[in-house]
Backbone:
């Protein structure tokens, strides 16, 4: 929110010259989000409606959408046999035998975000962004059906009443380090403990993390009106003005009277 009582000068075009113009004298320069609603688009009109009083997108209504391996087997690998054996009756790899390898947050708290509090609030008890309030902008599939896929039927079935995927049925698929020792790390000890009997990371415990527009309004642009439609007054007497001569500005003095600015006044100084 920003207000200013300073005189705002606008540089306007008046063929073939430039002259100074006063805008918002002894008034408000700019207010943003004053006593109102964040952002309103298409208020009291219709913005965007999708599938009003109808069906928008239906997938697999009263049927089957995707079935994989129903009542059967899909893929069989290493049935009734041995697939891959590494380090049988030898020593392969042992990690953390009779000890503790890696403990994270034992008997404690590892990461807490927004415990007993508020993490992020946007536009609480107020209005942040309103689009298409009380109106219609875009309607798709009103009182009808938009898109239906597999209504009262079957969409996709894979391996129905057959065999889908079996790995290592009635056998041995992959054995690593059977009856032996390959690599030992942290035997009879403790490898790595993080946050044992304590708290690791707490963010916003019993408090508030981030609040935007609580009990208020987020952004208002042109509420109950139009951005800039009023005419501005220009002073041409006893005031300096800029004239355009051969691609350069020159300040000159001239006598004149208070008049309305041209519509093509676009540059503010």
Residues:
């Amino acid at each position: 929110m920003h207000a200013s009582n300073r005189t705002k000068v606008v540089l306007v075009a008046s063929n073939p010259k430039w002259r100074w113009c006063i805008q918002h004298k002894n008034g408000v320069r700019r207010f943003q989000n004053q006593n109102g609603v964040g952002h309103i688009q298409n208020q009291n009109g219709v913005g965007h409606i999708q599938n009003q009083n109808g069906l928008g997108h239906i997938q697999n209504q009263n049927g089957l959408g995707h079935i994989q391996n129903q009542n059967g087997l899909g893929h069989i690998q290493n049935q009734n046999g041995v697939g891959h054996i590494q380090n049988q009756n030898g020593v392969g790899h042992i990690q953390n035998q009779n000890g503790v390898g890696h403990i994270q947050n034992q008997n404690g708290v590892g990461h807490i975000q927004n415990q007993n509090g508020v993490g992020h609030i946007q536009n609480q008890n107020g209005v942040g962004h309103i689009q298409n309030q009380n109106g219609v902008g875009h309607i798709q599939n009103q009182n009808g059906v938009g898109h239906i896929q597999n209504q009262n039927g079957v969409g996709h079935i894979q391996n129905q009443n057959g065999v889908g995927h079996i790995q290592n049925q009635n056998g041995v698929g992959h054995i690593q380090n059977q009856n032996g020792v390959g690599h030992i790390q942290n035997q009879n000890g403790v490898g790595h403990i993080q946050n044992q009997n304590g708290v690791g990371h707490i963010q916003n415990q019993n408090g508030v993390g981030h609040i935007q527009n609580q009990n208020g309004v987020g952004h208002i642009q042109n509420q109950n009106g139009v951005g800039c439609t009023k005419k501005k007054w220009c002073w041409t007497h006893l005031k300096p003005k800029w004239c355009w001569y051969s691609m350069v500005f020159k300040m000159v003095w001239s006598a004149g009277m208070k008049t309305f600015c041209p519509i093509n006044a676009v540059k503010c100084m």
In short: Residues 9-231 form one domain. The chain is about 0% helix and 45% strand. Residues 1-37, 222-233, 257-269 have pLDDT under 50 and may be disordered. The longest strand covers residues 8-14.
